[in-house]
């Protein structure tokens, strides 16, 4: 009996110690917990190829956007909500409409202030904006860009139409969507290898309003980081844009996949890369263009690199 008891003790102890040392059985709390007073910087690279129908004249439109975000954590409240001061210290974009002559580019480090567009873009550099972020990485608020865009009326002589376009692309609500699509990934709960959760977000790429449902799966847990597999399904969200009021029916479908690695202690992104493929079709239901269909196809990628 004594030998049996000793044997069982040995077996249970072996199982226990193996389970604690085996990374696949490790459990940890996965949330965004950036430290108060710390600085964090990220380089975001978004690359898109879009083509189809009259939107691109039958050519592929290639766009690359590089954006550096410098962030300072001003405060963290007891519930874990972080108040972060953010500025765009560098913004570069290049678009090729299919031929070299059709290329468009701007760079805040080398602004062409001889043009209205150059004046607008250079005004965005190093402008501080404030955002509130939850432990799930959800952007609760984004303030500062709307007022900056409206102030351009006095300083840069922009038209109402130009400011409306900027508001659509770079306004506070648009930046909530843009940054949220990168950071809103944390379940704020204890996870282990193989755990899965899904987050749905309203997103928009150019003229395409979409709902993205992303499934995250814990691929591995190491001593310092957590690696997640990303698998997204992209569907139409026409009602979000009011486009149905224009006699237009929009259908969107696509997918996105990739990997994200985050720091186990703070949730800070260490490595982030996703690829996406989207097909859309706009059908006209009224007016002289009734029955016309406009296909749009996009392939792209998003990469986030800590600086």
Task: Summarize the model shown.
This protein is α+β, with helices and mostly antiparallel strands. It has helices at residues 2-21, 116-124, 145-155, 160-170, 172-183, and strands at residues 27-30, 39-51, 61-76, 82-96, 104-107, 128-133, 139-143, 189-192, 196-205, 208-221, 225-236, 248-263, 269-284, 293-306.
Walk me through this protein's architecture:
Helix 3 runs antiparallel to helix 4 and helix 4 runs parallel beside helix 5. Strands 2, 3, 4, 5, 6, 7, 9, 10, 11, 12, 13 and 14 form a twelve-stranded antiparallel beta sheet that branches. It contains five helices and 14 strands. The N terminus is likely disordered. 20% of the residues are buried. It has one domain: Lipovitellin-phosvitin complex, beta-sheet shell regions (Roll). A hairpin with a 3-residue loop joins strand 10 and strand 11. Helices cover 21% and strands 49% of the residues. With 307 residues, the chain is of the alpha+beta class. The longest helix has 20 residues.
